[in-house]
Amino acid sequence: MKVFRGYTHHHLVVFTLTFCSYALFHATRKAFSNIKSTIEDEWTTSFHNSTVQTTKPNYVWNYHHMFENGDDAEIFLGALDTAFLSSYAIGLFISGIVGDRLNMRLVLSFGMCSSAITVFIFGTVTEWIGLYNKYFYMGFWILNGLLQSTGWPTVVAIMGNWFGRSSRGLILGVWSSCASVGNIIGAILCASVLDYGYEYAFFVPAATLFAGGIVNFFGLVTRPTEVGLPETTEEEGCTTVDVHVYSQLPSEDSSDVGGAEIIPINTLHGSKRPEAISIFKAIMLPGVIPYSLAYACLKLVNYSFFFWLPFYLTQAFKWKASVADDISIWYDVGGIVGGILGGIISDHLRTRSPIVVVMLILAIPSLFLYSHSPANLTTNAGLMSVAGFFIGGPANLISAAISADLGTKYSFWQPS
């Protein structure tokens, strides 16, 4: 196929390693989402009823008791989500700066291994040693948010280094499903070990994340020049890029867009690493602000499903936690299909914005329909997939293909 012309086995290895890396990041996040109902029961007194008001010895039955009722536990679980996302958002800025200035392979490997250790301590070690402390949980989950933030900026930058923009919609449309695949993996892992205790729902994803970090440390190549390959072109991999990348892809004969001269990287730096730009310059790139605002609104809905969908299914329909975990997979299946189809169509149309706008408009009725879903497993899964298609699809497209478009290395023309 013309799309894959010029690619080598190095491209396949980079695609696979970065895909698996972020999938494992998401699998560890999904663990916390999928055990919310279980951990709520563990953290509250659940052994008393109308006939049994006391349990003796009380310490044996309630030594892990942190909350008087489920409502208080839910508030704390929501606070953990808020703390995680806040630290994650701050960490994205830090990780982007660090990744531009240090070896991205080392940054990614460190983030994966350290996050795995943090999740292991948070969910597994605390249960094994009987440590139940709200401040300890909060501190470690904030730390996990900072460490998890090393993943996305580095893997997107690495993919942008290896794959040209002419086929980026298709390739990154497929690749961007890594988050949804990670959610599915996390849900399956949690459902398979949850009956043994919620601590194993943290342990198994954390162990795989740590192993992935070790593999990346020894095997990931961040730029083609590191293995003697040329920088990617626009059509086949060498990044000769313009700055007008936020909605309309340039024609083949375009040579100057918006006052920016298109200069091949090799002309500027030879085989050296391109110079990092400041946060201010990154924000001022055409398209960064509007896409960031749109993505923020989209993430509000997407993360609501990510963090609370299994819990909602358990509470609303009284389904077993493992059943809710299995059904929640269909939201991510819809997101995978939506991201791939959106990427393919945007490549053919040579523009991305209209695809995102249409999908987001159709997301409104899909959410309305899902809000009225009955307690039937098949119907619920079908409506959930439709919602995932129109919400997760554009989320994957913006976070991968469009982010790589915006972040591809370029040079501003600065008159003397």
SSE topology sketch:
Blueprint lengths: L8 H26 L1 H8 L14 H5 L7 H32 L2 H26 L4 H15 L2 H12 L5 H8 L2 H16 L4 H22 L36 E2 L2 E2 L3 H5 L9 H5 L4 H30 L3 H29 L3 H19 L5 H31 L9
Antiparallel strand pairs: 1-2
Helix pairs in contact: 1-7, 1-9, 1-10, 1-13, 2-4, 4-6, 4-7, 5-6, 5-7, 5-10, 7-16, 8-14, 8-16, 9-10, 9-14, 13-14, 13-16, 14-16, 15-16
Q: CA-to-CA gap between the ends?
A: 45 Å
What oligomeric state do these chains adopt? single chain
Low-confidence stretches: 234-271, 409-416
How many strand units?
2
| Structural class label | mainly alpha
Could you describe the largest sheet, including whether it forms a barrel?
2 strands, antiparallel
Spatial extent as radius of gyration: 23 Å
Number of helices, where a helix is a run of at least 4 consecutive DSSP H or I residues? 16
Write out the strand line-up for the largest beta sheet, numbering strands in chain order. Answer: 1-2
- Portion in beta strands: under 5%
Q: In sequence order, what are the helices and strands, one letter per element? A: HHHHHHHHHHEEHHHHHH
What is the arithmetic mean of pLDDT? 79
Principal-axis shape equals globular
In helices, the fraction of residues equals: 55-70%
